[in-house]
Amino acid sequence: MSMPRLAPSVLSLARKDLLLLWRDRVGFFFVFGFPLLIAIFFGLVFSGPGSGPGARLPIVVVDRDGSEASGALLHSLGASDSLSVEVMETPEAARARVRSGARVASIEIEPGFGSVDLPRRVVSRDAAPGVVIAIDPARQAEAGLLRGVVTREAFAALAPPGDASLASNPVPVRLERAAAADRNAFLVTFPQGLVWGVMACAAGFGVSLVAERRGGTLARIRSGPTPAWAVLAGKATACFVGNVALAVVLLVVGAIAFGLLSSASLVALVLAVLSVALGFVGLMMLLAVCGKTESAAGGVGWAVLLVLAMVGGAMAPRFLMPAWLDVVGGLSPVRWAIEAYEGAIWRGWTLSQMVWPCAKLIVMGAATFTLGARLMTRRD
Amino acid sequence: MTKSFGTLRAVDGVSLDVRPGEVLGLLGPNGAGKTTTLSIAAGRLHPTSGEVRLDGVSPARASARARVGVAPQELALYDELSAYENVALFARLFGVRRRELRERSLSALDRVGLADRAKGRARTFSGGMRRRLNLAMAITHDPAIVLLDEPTAGVDPQSRHAIFDVVASLRQAGCAVVCSTHYLEEAERLCDRVVIIDHGRVLVEGQVAALIDEHGGPPRVHIESGAGVVEQETDTPMRLVAEALADPTTREVHVERPDLESVFMRLTGRRLRD
User: Which residues of B touch A (CB under 8 A)?
Assistant: First the structure.
């Protein structure tokens, strides 16, 4: 018997796999349909008009100079199509507003801003009083846009009308971070990493639940004295422990290696870790009933989580979003989780400020767990 | 009891009983309703009508299910757990106390010949080993009733005999065993009584010998001689044998006594089942 030729074998095997993919309709959708929908949807979203009121960056301005020029700057910032301005009296109050997440940045017009005219600024640019932008570390993506707008308006406030004779802008605009622990990018990346971790954990446990259902072990356990709720509670407990362990490991590493927790509140942090873990345990249960096969459940699970992450601001800067999408993103548990972690780690949120995102996570977790458990019990 | 799935009546008026120390064989072609019957008995499915009692208690009650051991036809193991971990998990779920866990789990593994592979991952086991592990997981908690769905499907003769030994030991220990199987010689050897079901209905029930006497038909005499090959069913086989032996052209003669397979084929027919 001669050896079979390889090319037909390879083609037959490839045909088999494509046929299997075609037969797995859910899997097929997530290979071909879902990316197309995502590309079209977000393309339409981000290519839409970004100049509406919703696209304005919310900032807080403190005029510490009180001069005519600073007043003109304040007025022009308020009139800008790019900004939504709130005026406050002190830099401390303004920065607290930024740290709380209510505003993207505080713009502080330094004393003496209006007393140094443009020609003298050319000589002593960096030493001259200017403008300080204290940006929310989680909104670094917006910093460039904000700096450009402030620089332009500051120049316009100091320059005589129609004077564009200076080749370079002599008004110093300094950028700082508004967080208590300055200059630490890990303050932003670790909360996001934590949320990606719990999403992976939720997706993984959801798929494992489907695998157990398909493999017969779940039915076998159910044939014993263990009630259905206990079986699901066991899975939920494992997912919860996984989520908490993940958070502990990341936070300990972050604390030791990057000083992550130097200004964190332990009580708020515990509240954040527990509520995020509970919230995503519920989500895991709901994801587990979204597909009959492991690949389908995995596809649906990650698709849902990616969309939640995208609209929640964990993937694309929020300032790129139109107002309505930013509002929709406020319904994403990913945003609640990031808010909870940031509030506990560096925003310096009080417990009363922490309650809102944490309560949303816990309620969402309880609701999705109940719904998922009921659907699963009914399906079994 | 009956069980319907939509318009399909998978179990249609089946009534069975099994006593302590008895092995009841559940025989039938594919799709006859054996697995559905066992699933109802295990409390996994609710009958559409009728009821199941385990020592007088419904399997809907957890206390009743705790006294049952189920070895499903589709191997339900955790591949990434060791044999010991698989057995110990189910022992705990069925109420074995922590202090007895190790001893009971190792004992169950020993009964199925897997004590020396207790630490091996189920994923690395052969088909026969996995089937034996499947059985060990059903008996660790010393159940009063054991439901075995095709316990020897796809295993080698050595594993099959090991499983036979376990079933025999369960009977000796006073356990009530219900065992569905396709292997009729296995049922003949293991079972005190058999029930043959088809299309969800009980066709016959009784001891193997009695069923053969009643439904097996007459012996079949097979003769090869100068006149050709003759097969004949007769109630007087020895007369035909004597005649054949008197014929100098006879090359071969033998008598096939009816067995359980004869009963099975007579009752369920030769039509293929899918």
Answer: 42-44, 62-63, 65-66, 68, 70, 72, 74-78, 90, 93-95, 137
